[in-house]
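Dear colleague,

As promised, here are the two records you asked about, laid out in our usual form so they can be pasted straight into your sheet.

NAME FIELD: protein one
SEQUENCE, THEN STRUCTURE:
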Amino acid sequence: MKLYSAYRAPNPRRVLMFLAEKNITSLEVIQVDLGKDEHRSASFMAKSPLAKVPALELDDGRVLTETRAICTWLEGRHPQPNLMGRDADERAFIEMADRRVELYLMAGLAQWIRHCHPGLAPLEKPQFPDFGRSQGEKVVEVARWLDRTLQMQPWVAGERMTIADITAFCALEFARGLMKFVPGELGMNALQAWRDRLNERPSAKAL
């Protein structure tokens, strides 16, 4: 199997962290250079028609795109350690937490970065800086919600680490690198402590 990834991009990093947490080392990882528009090449779009990474090419030639779908496939074939829920109840609550983080934290941060950072101009044509700044303001409130959540429980979805923590960590690290977003500097001490604790895990080094 082949995993098409992109260095430091947040969604490919989610899959790489997921693989590392599960100690899955059998995939061939192929880097797609977004800066050189390799994701828009005819050969890559034959695999991922919307020109998105990551993409997982299975041994039978089928291709899975979308991070959550890739992780669901991997979880089904490598169920331990469990990261997506052991039964229907736990799966539902973990998915709720993961989707909240993906839709309201990661997506907002991505819009802020894509429309405000000059280095992303080649990927976001045209940029709308006012829109990006408005998304940045909104996402700070989402981060405050997450900070309050982590004041009451050790992990994003509850009492143990799950895929929701991977999604949140990759979102915050993307913003930390490109927009210098540091929760602790805004008084979000629980969120900062959670980030620092997760950063000590070996999977956090998977880029």
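NAME FIELD: protein two
SEQUENCE, THEN STRUCTURE:
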Amino acid sequence: MPIVAADLKFLSSERMTDEMAGGLLGGGHAVGPVVLTGVANSVFPAAMPADLATGRRQLRQVWPAVLSNENSLASTAQVAVYQRAADANVSLLAFAAAAVAVEARDQRSLPQAANALDYAYLAAAGVYAGTLVSAGGNSLSGLSYSPSDLIKVGEKVGIVTSTLKLAWRNVTAVDGAAGTLTFAGTGLTGLGAGAAVQVYRYGPPNVRVSAPGHLTAGVIAGAQQVTLDRLEVRVQPVGATSATPGILNASAAVTQSYIGANPFTRAVQDLGGVLPAFWPGWPVLIDDPTNGTPPEVKVVESVNYVTGVVRFTSTLANAYTTGSRVSTLLDVGNLRAAVTLAPFAQQTWNRTWADAVTGPVITPRYAGAIAMNNAGGITDRWALVFTSATAFNLVSERYGQIGAGNTASNFVPLNPLTSQPYFTLPASGWGTGWLPGNVLRFNTQGAHAGVWYGRCISPGAAGADEGGLIFRADV
């Protein structure tokens, strides 16, 4: 049967923790079990009194997964934070990032995730040198371009010092002729008179943050813009230091390369405490849970961080009441279990997980079509190591030896999490000439994608910290 809504689930990761375990922090592969829907503390534990008093940042990796007992495509899968915490001192957000892997076959671990989040908005449409007017000032002058051509009043830009400290500011005035920008908020402290700065205006997203805003007033069908009560999301507790749980040590600078080939070396807490949650070009979900109005997906045309107005590229089909939610959607791609490396034969098994033949070329082949099942398939590398001319053992890179089969029968190893096959090798595909020690190698991917879910608790929170994720796809 085709994919239905009940097949769209979240799986847990290997390490649903912030603590160091076996040299690795939280995250890892999708392993299950299914994250329970509508159950409190199914991702984060209950906030402890110490967390409410001093603050904490936590990250958990979950995996939106298609658990259908067949192999249909879930197209344009998306995830969003659709419910935020009732306590304003508790911030919930989600993001997906193509960050650097910790090891060849592991997924993103907490250090990479934390910095992917912190570096999310450094992807630049252009980098422009400028000079701070005065220490603690609110304007830039001497910019090497005409700012009015690219930056508009109400937009948000990041100001980065030569030591790579980042400050986000709302643009309140632009003078293209003079080459100056003026910002709202507190002064740009710590830059110093005449300090060199760079202006980063967000370009094509490699990391998108999801956090909901609520309509401050109702809108009618045909409206093209809404006003939201919140356009940013807090990613670090107020007053966070290296001693705050979940914040990396300031003395341990990290190197990242999320912006082309240019690495940035700096500590996490150099970042300001909030990030923009909406940006032109991003898709958003508009939803009114109070009266059953159908949700809509729109693309953001512009965002005014001074007035709170978000304009869409097309008009709304429905009316929405005050308090309706607008959540940034995270694209996690097309989800379907698949064979990602065609099977190839190798003379001997050297326990090296190379994706090409090593050693002499041999003539035996497997010519069958390996069948995949969304509910059973996982992302892994596989080796079938022959113990005779017809029998073999199944070895997984992640789990080691997990089964055995032979060329006379269809080989259907089951995933114990779902009781569905990891894959199916029809017996009809086997050629002749296999010898003990020969190997058949191939790779598969599961119908899932990793998403990081974050909770930031600032001091003084009362503990109303529940939120929720939504997972949607075209089927």
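A couple of things worth noting about protein two: The mean pLDDT is 80. The chain is about 5% helix and 40% strand.

Best,
R.
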